[in-house]
Design a protein that fits this description.
The complex is a heterodimer. Chain A is about 10% helix and about 35% strand. Chain A is mainly beta. Chain A has one domain: Ferrous iron transport protein A (FeoA) (SH3 type barrels, Roll). Chain B folds into four domains: about 150 residues, P-loop containing nucleotide triphosphate hydrolases (Rossmann fold, 3-Layer(aba) Sandwich); about 90 residues, Helix Hairpins (Orthogonal Bundle); about 220 residues, no CATH class; about 130 residues, no CATH class. In chain B, the strands form two sheets. Chain B has a seven-stranded mixed beta sheet, with helices on both faces. In chain B, strands 7-9 form a two-stranded antiparallel ribbon. In chain B, β3 and β4 form a beta hairpin. Chain B is elongated, with a radius of gyration of 29 Å. Classes of the chains: A mainly beta, B alpha/beta. Chains A and B meet through α1, β5 and α2 of A and α3, α11, α16 and β10 of B. β5 of chain A pairs antiparallel with β10 of chain B.
Chain lengths: ~90, ~650
């Protein structure tokens, strides 16, 4: 099933399907991110479609996510992580 | 062999030990500055090797060569336009896939390269063994395994680099994308070859397919007819893959990097999680992470400022102890006064304020950064700092500013983008430093009430919050978002940290001292020429009418530019008493307004110097002028509100 990266439980992993930058998230009426190349930056850090990501944990108070991808550890801000969609087997 | 001059650029991801290699190579022959017109630091050094003079440029640590950060732009422009004789790509052997992704992009720039396969010891501890010979063959580029922190392999690296240049610098292998992409790259680069563009044709073709804005803009100027052809090819690739063309190309690049990494590395997972993994888990723990961080930050803060305070006092006593000797030599005349009060007191101010705080600050900042703890702090505090439009790392400069704004401003360099650096610096200059605290407590806390002193802090905090948000909205550019690698913890390389501290310190002294001396000389000159009272008169519409303060406070405020605690000292001198309760024209309302203005009105001269050092004259001047105007505005409003409330 396809979920947002932020919906994954700690320790769960999935395969990146798409990064929806420029789409509305949680009724937020801001088409954020497209102009600033957020998708490109995430892809440059290795989050390309088909990549396996593991959510290690998230910082409290809606803080960033710690993910494990391509043999290294990344911190991704919540707002950006919400836009990453992954395929998960549950 | 004839004496010749080579230029070698160091490139690689952040935290791969690039600066350690740089320091090994260049030793004490370094020059630290900024890239022209940018807030990105540029480190250059020279070394002599086998009759060659080699200039080494340490490029910023980056993960890609796209247009999304100035660091990436600077790096690729430097490599393509300045054409160094060789690029040394420093690669972290323990995170091979991510690092090779960048290596592949460097190879596309077609500059002769040598790969330094660094931290092979760390990789081994993680159970990763890399067959560097195989990597060398696959990439078509010499690969030298190194352990920079111990200096292992650095000599071989240098040897190989010189050898590669002498041989005429072979271009690296060409990595092939998928058939359908490769075909379009080739036909596109055939067209690009016809025009004069500093970048390699194949690279340009790839960037055009990726819709790289900078390349598109530049090509449009030279030969606009190429763009539609590129657009058509990109569309075709998109139709085949169902993803945007840049996504497809990035994916393929990672695919190649992953393929190579799997081919050359042998992984045997360690049996139990190593120490640094447990340390990472502990320091980023949802609950425990915070008290650990609080203790760490608090001890850093306290140690910097107890050390700073103690040394500052010691130096100050020592240097002021020279005053009688000085007076004996020059006598009490005007010249003596100018030299002592202007030049020497300026130097004393610089030495006693800046140095005792800046030295421990730089040391600790580099220790935090090199060890990897800084990125964990950013991880934990990201959300809090987002409230003022900054992300987690900004906490460090803001915290330091509570002690002294100067290290705060210098610490802004840890932020990723130019916009974030500027935003952070702006916030930092509004944070009340130790000297401001002396005034708040010494004036309002003593003569009005402790509650009012506290209230002033809260007001200042609200102002920071409000202005931070405002600047965040007003400043054009990318909104803040965190994408950060948290590389493994490691023991910082002490020698590199010391050298980094030393060269940054020298750079600051060169920048700040002339400014501080000129500033204090000007003020002393005004005093000696008895211009202070006329100046106070000129300022009186502002001080007396708008702020409701006695006219002489204008003089005190001018002295505060040198160092903020001088406002209080000057006030006592000018009023003829340190017991401010005895002065009828300087009641509680005036004290509060005066303190509020002092808190906000101007960064002191050393802070201005730090701003100039980091951001250039224009931005430093803008921040300064804005804060003066803003402080006067707030002071006047506060005065009227306080009168109403009475």
């Amino acid at each position: 099933m396809e979920l947002r990266l932020t919906d994954l439980r700690d320790g769960e992993s999935g395969v990146v399907t798409s990064i929806k930058i420029g789409h509305r998230v949680h009724g937020e009426h801001r088409r954020a991110g497209r102009r600033w190349g957020f998708r490109h930056r995430l892809e440059d850090m290795g989050l390309t479609p088909g990549t396996r990501v593991t959510v290690v944990k998230s910082a409290p108070f809606r803080g960033p996510l710690e993910v494990y991808v391509r043999g290294s550890r990344l911190a991704i801000g919540k707002r950006m992580a919400e836009r990453i969609f992954v395929e998960v087997k549950r | 062999m004839t004496e010749s001059k080579f230029i070698v650029a160091l490139a690689g991801n952040a935290n791969v030990g690039k600066s350690v290699i740089f320091n090994h190579l260049t030793g004490l022959h370094q020059h630290i500055g900024n890239w022209p017109g940018k807030t990105v630091e540029k480190a250059e050094g020279t070394l002599h090797f086998r009759g060659h003079t080699i200039d080494i440029i340490d490029l910023p640590g980056i993960y890609s060569l796209s247009t999304f950060s100035i660091e990436e732009l600077i790096s690729r422009e430097y490599i393509a336009v300045q054409t160094p004789d060789l690029v040394i790509n420093v690669v972290d052997a323990s995170v091979l896939e991510r690092n090779l992704f960048f290596t592949l992009q460097l190879m596309e720039l077609e500059t002769p390269m040598v790969v330094a396969l660094n931290q092979v010891d760390m990789a081994k501890k993680k159970g990763i063994k890399v067959d560097y010979k195989k990597l060398e063959k696959t990439l078509g580029v010499p690969v030298i395994p190194t352990v920079a922190t111990r200096g292992t392999g650095v000599y071989e690296l240098l040897q190989k680099s010189v050898e590669t240049i002498e041989k005429g610098g072979k271009k690296p292998h060409r990595m092939k994308y998928g058939e359908e992409i490769e075909k379009r790259i080739e036909s596109l680069s055939e067209i690009v070859k016809e025009i004069r563009y500093p970048y390699p044709a194949r690279w340009t073709a790839i960037k055009l397919l990726e819709k790289d804005e900078q390349v598109e803009r530049e090509i449009r100027k030279i030969s606009p007819k190429i763009l539609p052809a590129a657009g058509k090819s990109a569309k075709e690739i998109e139709n085949i893959h169902g993803h945007s063309c840049s996504t497809v190309i990035t994916s393929e690049r990672y695919e190649i990097a992953g393929c190579i990494a799997r081919k050359v590395q042998h992984i045997a997972p360690p049996t139990r999680p190593p120490m640094r993994e447990r340390l990472h888990a502990l320091t980023t723990h949802k609950i425990l992470g915070y008290p650990i961080m609080a203790i760490a930050l608090l001890s850093i803060f306290i140690s910097i400022f107890t050390f700073g305070d103690y040394t500052s006092g010691l130096l100050s006593d020592l240097l002021y102890g020279l005053e009688p000797i000085f007076e004996n030599i020059f006598g009490p005349g005007i010249v003596g006064k100018l030299i002592w009060g202007g030049v020497i007191e300026g130097i004393i101010a610089g030495v006693t304020i800046a140095l005792p705080y800046i030295i421990p600050f730089y040391l600790i900042l580099y220790l935090l950064e090199d060890s990897g703890y800084l990125s964990r702090i950013a991880f934990l505090l990201d959300n809090v700092m987002h409230k003022i439009g900054l992300h987690g790392k900004a906490f460090i400069p803001v915290m330091l500013s509570l002690g002294c704004n100067v290290p705060g401003c210098l610490g802004c360099r840890i932020m990723e983008t130019e916009r974030e650096r500027l935003l952070t610096a702006f916030v930092v200059t509004l944070v009340p430093c130790a000297a401001t605290t002396v005034i708040v407590l010494g004036l309002v806390g003593t003569f009005v009430s402790v509650q009012w002193a506290l209230a002033l802090y809260i007001i200042d905090l609200l102002i920071i919050f409000f202005l931070g948000r405002l600047a965040f909205k007003a400043l054009p550019g990318e909104p803040t978002a965190l994408i950060m690698e948290m590389s493994d913890y490691r023991v910082p390389h002490l020698e590199t940290v010391l050298k980094q501290t030393w060269f940054r310190l020298m750079e600051f002294i060169k920048m700040a001292f002339p400014l501080i001396i000129v500033g204090s000389l000007l003020i002393k000159l005004a005093e000696v020429m008895e211009l202070l009272n006329p100046i106070a008169g000129v300022l009186s519409p502002m001080t007396v009418t708008w702020l409701g303060l006695p006219a002489i406070t204008g003089i005190a405020l001018i002295f505060g530019v040198l160092r903020k605690e001088l406002t209080l000292i000057m006030l006592a001198t000018l009023l003829g008493t340190a017991d401010f309760a005895q002065v009828p024209s300087f009641g509680p309302v005036q004290m509060i307004v005066f303190t509020l203005v002092t808190m906000l009105y101007i960064p002191c001269v050393a802070t201005i110097a730090a701003l100039v050092r980091e951001f250039g004259w224009k931005k430093a001047l803008f921040i300064t002028v804005f804060e003066i105007v803003f402080a006067i505005l707030v002071g006047g409003i506060a005065f009227r509100l306080l009168i109403l409330a009475q």
